[in-house]
Amino acid sequence: MIQVRIASLSVDTRSNSPVLILSPLVVDPAHPRLLPIWIGTPEATSILLALQGTDMPRPLTHDLMRDVVETLGFVVERVEITRVDEGTFYAALILRGEERAFALDARPSDSIALAVRTGSPIFVDDEVFEQASIEAEPDIDPDAEIEQFREFLEGVEPEDFLH
Fold first, then answer.
1. Could you tell me if 43 and 138 are in contact, meaning their C-beta atoms sit under 8 angstroms apart?
2. Domain 2-161 coded CATH 3.10.690.10
């Protein structure tokens, strides 16, 4: 498993869809690689709000997930992106309590939204990273990418989700 961090959250200009870019914590300077994962706008918004530390007046779904997990006496030990099948990524939430630990099947976007809220590490299976990662562009500015995504969100209408 390769531990990763969120390098940026942006919008794919070709598909007008949010894309989450993950980068290994330990980067090979000779061959820097990034893992793009296209996600839904609601999940991207949730991740962005958590990254910014924005408090909402009522809990969002991922805030509720965090609260339920913690109230039941568990912690999100880590998120694992476990496989990719025909462009669809799969993940597992690894939860740990006093007496047991278990893995829950989950979407990567939901898992990462929860990980950001709990400060939990994110890992990608070595084979998944090798298969789905791309060569990194030299000068990605995460702040500029997040600002571009924020601008995208300001222009999205509810009807955009109906297709």
1. no
2. yes
Measure the CA–CA gap between 23 and 4, rounded to whole angstroms. Answer: 5
Residue 124 burial class via C-beta count within 10 angstroms: exposed 0-12, middle 13-18, buried 19 and up: buried
The answer to whether 55 and 97 are in contact (CB under 8 A) is no
Q: Give the domain ranges of the chain.
A: 2-161
- Quick: pLDDT tens for 73-120: 999 999 999 999 998 999 999 999 999 999 999 999 999 999 999 999
What amino acid is encoded at 147 in this protein? E
Q: What is the value of pTM for the model shown?
A: 0.81
φ, ψ of residue 67 in degrees (nearest 5): -65, -40
List pLDDT tens digits, range 30-49: 788 999 999 999 999 999 99
